[in-house]
Amino acid sequence: MQQRARTEEAKDQRRQALLAAALDEFFERGFTAARMDDIAARAGLSKGSLYLYFKSKEALFGALVDVYALPNVERVEAAASAAPDATTAIQSFTQLAPLLVRTSAVPKIMKILIADAPAFPDVVNAYRRAVIERGLKVIENILRRAGETGELNIENPQLTARLVIAPMILSAIWHVVFERNDETATVDLEALFALHGKMLLRALAPRPETAS
Questions:
Q1: Does residue 211 belong to any structural domain of this protein?
Q2: Which residues in 53-87 are b (16+ Cβ under 10 Å) and which e?
């Protein structure tokens, strides 16, 4: 018979094991098809133990967002706060993006959302507000300030922010859908995002005054 975790450290280890199992189960089977029994078994725990920590698949997914996704939004926010200007902030983002695509769980979470979005719209919308829109708002604010100071030529900060992160979304999807099954599909993300940063700064450079 499985013993209940007694210490806080043991409880945290079980919780982390369940989250890791849930991430893999949702990713491989889809949110709808994944079963709580299989998640518990993958973690090496009983179904009863799973329900001690998470009452539903929705609660599990919410915890995945809190543990795996939100810290990465905070990394973007920290990089933006540390940058003295928008140019440096964009460069910091293009350096951070390859790491987020390769080493974080965000690409897997995005694939789960895309595959089963109609099945759990409330969870999808919660993710959009907590992660996507929060990240967009960070970039939007940087761009708006840069437009106001004249550092960059920004016509629409809100839409431009979407253009800034678009390659990251594509790269995340590419990484989990194509690269994991075929090494020939591997993309040099450092080169890609360095090029993206250069193109952005060139396109957003202040326009010279037209001589009258």
A1: no
A2: bbeebeebbbbbbeebbeebbeebeebbeebeebb
pLDDT tens per residue, range 67-87: 999 999 999 999 999 999 999
- pTM, entire model: 0.86
* Same-domain status, 146 and 49: no
Q: Give residue 116's domain range.
A: 57-203
Separation of alpha carbons 196 and 114, rounded Å: 24
Does a structural domain hold residue 33?
Answer: yes
pLDDT at 209: 65
| CATH code, domain carrying 30 | 1.10.10.60
